[in-house]
Specification:
With 230 residues, the protein is of the alpha/beta class. The chain folds into two domains: 122 residues, Ribosomal protein L1/L10, rRNA-binding domain (Ribulose 1,5 Bisphosphate Carboxylase/Oxygenase, 2-Layer Sandwich); 84 residues, Rossmann fold (3-Layer(aba) Sandwich). It is 32% helix and 20% strand. The strands form three sheets. The protein has a four-stranded antiparallel beta sheet. It has a three-stranded parallel beta sheet with strand order 4-3-5, sandwiched between helices. Strands 2-6 form a two-stranded antiparallel sheet. The longest helix is centred in the C-terminal third of the chain and has 17 residues. The termini are far apart. The model has no long low-confidence stretch (mean pLDDT 92).
Length: 230
């Protein structure tokens, strides 16, 4: 596959041997040649952990101060008044058997599923469908709760879950390229503070190995780790 002129121009702005300050990296992204859609700004964090050990799994939830800029489709699995509460709070879909049956039939056109505790016995049966897509509700991420209103509103405002992958990398979004520079900086620092706080107590070696920032269609920019270690 050939490399586009736009990609080459953006890549030429970057020194691959340099670790950039966060402000400078976001400035490069924001002034790069654009595509016809509002690109996401993504971050990849390489950690010095071994995800095979349960006590070294890094995961958590964090509310980005300026949201992700992504319009998430939220499904709430709940009955009666709780389903009504979900719709009033801004959920895209809410109900019980109807949506459980749709998921069984292969429907997964959603980004987040929230469920009330009494529905988890049924939702749990869909683990083979929801698990690989990271859609399974979990009390630790706040997606199994009776406080439906706040759960839906938090997700819509920018609450995200991060979890290390099997290759010891966390991938997630920190906003859109159209965001003001200061908003991307604050989102990034908020996320990184949560990840640093989640450092496993059992880890003896280096925790934060590499941090890379990129836009959807752009090359990665290595960040200076000291920004986050301090």
């Amino acid at each position: 596959m050939g490399i586009s002129k736009r990609y080459r121009e953006n890549f030429e702005k970057i020194d691959i041997n340099k670790d950039y300050l966060l402000d400078d990296a976001i400035e490069i992204l924001s002034t790069s040649a654009k595509v016809k859609f509002d690109e996401s700004v993504d971050i990849a964090i390489n950690l010095g952990i071994d995800p095979k050990h349960a006590d070294q799994i890094v995961r958590g939830i964090v509310s980005l101060p300026h949201g992700t800029g992504k319009k998430l489709k939220v499904l709430v699995i709940a009955k009666g008044d709780k389903a009504d509460e979900a719709i009033n709070a801004g959920a895209d879909f809410a109900g019980d058997k109807e949506y459980l049956d749709k998921i069984k039939s292969g429907w997964v056109d959603i980004d987040v599923i929230i469920a009330t505790p009494d529905m988890m016995s049924e939702v749990g049966k869909l683990g083979k469908v929801l698990g690989p897509r990271r859609l399974m509700p979990n009390p630790k991420s706040g997606t199994v709760t009776n406080d439906i209103k706040n759960a839906v509103e938090d997700v819509k405002k920018g609450k995200i879950e991060f979890r290390v992958e099997k290759n010891a990398i966390i991938h997630t979004i920190i906003g859109k390229i159209s965001f003001e520079k200061i908003k991307l900086i604050e989102n990034c620092k908020t996320l990184m503070a949560a990840i640093m706080k989640a450092k496993p107590h059992s880890l003896k070696g280096i925790y934060l190995k590499k941090v890379t920032l990129s836009s959807t269609m752009g090359p990665g920019i290595k960040l200076d780790k000291s920004t986050f270690l301090n």
